Amino acid sequence: MLPLPYPKDDFTGKTVLITGANTGIGLEAARHFVRLNAAKVVLGCRDLEKGEIAKRDIEVTNHVDTGTDPARAEVWQVDLASFASVQAFCSRAASNLGRLDIVIANAGMLGMSFATAEGYERTTTVNVLSTWLMVLLLLPILRRTNERYYRKDDDPSATRNNVPHLVVVGSNAHFYTVFDGCDAPSVFEHLRSDSDMFHRYANTKLISLLIAREVAARMLERKRRGRENDVVLNIVEPGSCRTELLREKVSWPWASRAFVTIGFGIFGRTAEMGARTYVSASTAGWESHGVYLEDCKLSTPHKFVDSEEGARLQKKVYEELLQILEGVSPGISQNI
């Protein structure tokens, strides 16, 4: 893969929240944002001890003095296998963050062994249900930030020509999957089962991509209802990177383990290189709203996504998702 531009943006005064930030691409993205003068970077981590180790590593590499500037990086606990944990995390953000400028929904998992979380197959819960529960709960905080810090024409210190960003991490794995649940009466009921775990990660990334496009479109409808769209939502593909996302590969078929180990070892990006795509997506303009990004540029998803069948599945999974999430957090649909 070709090298990507080294981030040089200035995030002075901004608050950035990244999930899955104690390792891999999330950690390297957090390191970049601290280096680029973000006022606060929240590291959302399942394991607080590992999160604190990551925080100290970021502080050392960026020469942050924890004695005089202790809040530049903060570790918050969140476990996307638990709806209650996600809700508590978002409630803390609403109460404790005076502003929230950038959210990077990076946390995810890739596994082929079947396990459940919140009544659904674990990968589906983490990569889709909890990710979108978090995204929709944080969206009003991003809008509030826009109203307070970006839109005051009479305030010379207000940021202009920019808006808060919501970056959902996708994957080119959706190009290489066969989703046998497209025609199921309920997609998410189909995904409760242990059928086709080999394609489960790719299928969850396809579904999340479709949901992102639908949510982005609904956000644009706010304009037609007389309310300005004030948050950029985009989907970023960081490229094939050598990270701990592959930590469960010990349970994979031997051929898959060999292919991934050799392929990623030779052609995979470093986590730092992949993190550059996150920083780029967090500064992309309105033209990136609802758009798939890769290599720090606007891109296009698999042709299925733009097909008639893809459009039908997009509406279907969006409606099913909201029905599930309304049962978890009543009224969440109004956040869109």
Strands, helices and their partners?
Layout lengths: L14 E5 L4 H12 L4 E6 L2 H14 L11 E5 L5 H14 L5 E4 L10 E2 L2 E2 H29 L14 E5 L17 H4 L9 H25 L7 E6 L16 H14 L3 H11 L10 E3 L2 E2 L9 H21 L8
Parallel strand pairs: 1-2, 1-4, 2-3, 4-7, 7-8, 8-9
Antiparallel strand pairs: 5-6, 9-10
Helix pairs in contact: 1-2, 1-8, 3-4, 4-6, 6-9
What does this structure look like?
The longest helix is centred in the middle third of the chain and has 29 residues, at 122-150. The chain has nine helices and ten strands. It starts with 14 loop residues before the first strand and ends in an 8-residue tail after the last helix. It has an eight-stranded mixed beta sheet with strand order 3-2-1-4-7-8-9-10, with helices on both faces. The chain has a two-stranded antiparallel sheet with strand order 5-6. By secondary structure, it is an alpha/beta fold. The relative contact order is 0.14.
Descriptors:
336 residues; alpha/beta; eight-stranded mixed sheet; two-stranded antiparallel sheet; 12% strand
Strand % is: 5-15%
Got a strand count? 10
Low-confidence stretches: 256-266
How far apart the termini lie comes to 36 Å
Number of helices: 9
Task: Indicate the radius of gyration in whole angstroms.
Answer: 19 Å
Overall geometric form: globular
In which order are the strands of the major sheet placed?
Answer: 3-2-1-4-7-8-9-10
Structural class comes to alpha/beta
In sequence order, what are the helices and strands, one letter per element? Answer: EHEHEHEEEHEHHEHHEEH
Percent helix among the residues? 40-55%
Mean pLDDT: 89
Give a quick account of the main beta sheet: strands, pairing sense, barrel closure: 8 strands, mixed
